[in-house]
Amino acid sequence: MFDVKKLILLGLVVSLVAFSGCTEDQASAESSMTMKEGILVVGTDPTFPPFEEKNADGELVGFDIDLMKALGEKMGLEIQFVEQPFDGIIPALKAEKFDCIISAVTITDDRAKEVAFTNSYFDAAQVIAVLVDDESVQSVDDLAGKVVAAQLGTTGEYEAQHYAEELGFEIKSYEVMADAFIDMENGRVDAVVTDDGVAQRFLDTKPGFYKVVGEPMTAESYGLAANLDNQELIDALNAALSEVKEDGTYDEIYAEWFDN
Q1: Which of 246, 136, 235, 234 is nearest to 191 (CA)?
Q2: Is residue 84 left, alpha or beta, with left meaning phi > 0 and alpha meaning psi from -120 to 50?
Q3: What CATH number does the domain containing 164 carry?
Q4: What is the pTM of this model?
Q5: Residue limits of the Ionotropic glutamate receptor C-terminal domain (predicted)?
Q6: Phi, psi of 123 (to 5 degrees)
């Protein structure tokens, strides 16, 4: 089995050797890596259940949260989460507010120009959710003339924007996904475009209120993200991902959040 701790230690040795020949600016950039202090600072937006949210006690919980903690154990690092609205999470990473992101971030070509991604850790799709008694929307084509909700900065919002131009419907964007579903209940929006796992969470939480209609709009994969110049961290995260998948930890976390 690949030893993630050895990878990190090797990276530290290489960094220390390289550090001796660094300029002052390079040294400052190197010293900003909290991973070298035994702490990995991770950005997340806890408004996207069941991947990341806050429980009644205000604690961060979710599939991504548990997975990140498991990765931290494999890497021998303490995980420190920093909350950040999703539409600003990549700019915050680039500004070094945290070392990496785990927040149901879909791997896309455009995002890959700004950040480095790990291997995929979750497959998803964009779907349409409506009220259970709404028969007017059966597919994406039926969104014409409707008001459609999506979360700011997500691929759900991007996909909705794509179809809005073609079909002609209004998009209402939200920072918090739960607010979109509440507004749908209250008649302020007609449909919600979101990830299938998120839609299913709301269906399970309030049985008889919502349903998913039509075919999936996309096929997507989530990845953790780090800055483009931080391949050392990406390699360490990929090694840890391989370990949690091989030893059954990933399956245990998945079962807790999706098989109940």
Answers
A1: 136
A2: beta
A3: 3.40.190.10
A4: 0.85
A5: 39-260
A6: -100, 140
Same domain membership, residue 160 and residue 117: no
Q: What is the 3-state secondary structure (H, E, C) of 146-198?
A: CEEEEECCCHHHHHHHHHHHHHCCEEEEECCHHHHHHHHHCCCCCEEEEEHHH
Pick from 31, 73, 81, 29: which is nearest to 52 by CA?
81
Q: CA 124, CA 13: separation in Å to the nearest integer?
A: 38
CA dihedral 69, 19, 25, 226 (to 10 degrees): -30
Whole-angstrom Cα distance, residue 239 to residue 6? Answer: 11
Which two tokens mark 6? 């050895």
Paired with 126 in beta bridges are 195
Q: Which residue range is the domain that position 100 belongs to?
A: 4-123+221-258
Question: Which has the closest alpha carbon to 255: 50, 118, 71, 54?
Answer: 50
Whether 231 and 119 map to the same domain: the answer is yes
Q: Which of 156, 206, 204 lies closest to 177, judged by CA?
A: 156
User: pLDDT means per 10 residues in the chain (260 residues)?
Assistant: 46 41 39 67 97 97 98 97 97 97 98 98 98 97 98 96 95 97 97 97 95 97 98 97 98 92
